């Protein structure tokens, strides 16, 4: 049994899932939280068997000015716990602090956009990215696009483990929608689903603009618009100006247990994200047998084959997204086969239980490298 210190930026549904799986291993798992953001991201308690570590962080948003204080207390945590391995991410926050400590073995886990987007913000972000990767024993990435960025920063390929996070294929599966469509009176509608956070990186405004364009000529089209975020004023203004409020269901943040019903109630999943690795929500949609229309970015191209699992559209192009939605509507006869192919792809590549073993392989590799 090894002592593993899991160090993450905040406490999210993804962290809950990782910690739950790690708690089921023979290892002793300690959880360190870098910050507490303005929004509560996960309301479930820590999984049984995970030890929360109190320290100088984890109580307010992270700032660069706090790094010296956090680093000193991080060293104290290491001295007290004496971990056999630190698992840290995202790259430029939690993993950067872990890298500054000089601890080995260090498994750095990319969260997708930290390498695909944040690594290129400016010289400072490029420097901390390079330092963190240089000091990482092993990097875990969720897609080939992340691997390519790591290689460009000088990371050795033999120290990179690809790990598409995957989803619970029993929880996310085709089935009944629990009456969602019927309660809205949408039994005969063509229903779209968007559930990315209302932040600039996820392009929800592009989705709403495309929906507004399509809705002018397709009276039967409807939209489940879940989520919230800093772009709420913009999203609400677009809905109001285009007279769409009676054709959109604003569902807010939907909990894990209710999510499958929304995937099952939709005819098409939409994501206009400007940056993504292997998107978990896309994998959830595929697992529920839902065809997808997603932005043509490297992470999405690894999952959606046009005409097989859905369609791609040029990143940021609302008109092109509207055209793809019209194509899906006009070719409703092909959606049944797309649903079958989507579920098949999820079973082949997005099985959380099978994919999680890749993370444990990364731990083993890190221990092997450290022992050399």
Automatic annotation (TrEMBL):
The keyword Transferase belongs to this UniProt entry's keyword annotation: yes
EC number of the protein: 2.4.-.-
Domain Glycosyltransferase subfamily 4-like N-terminal residue range list: 17-169
Residue ranges of domain Glycosyl transferase family in the record: 188-343
Keywords: Glycosyltransferase, Transferase
Enzyme's top EC category: transferase
Domain of life: Bacteria
Designated name of the protein: Glycosyltransferase family 4 protein
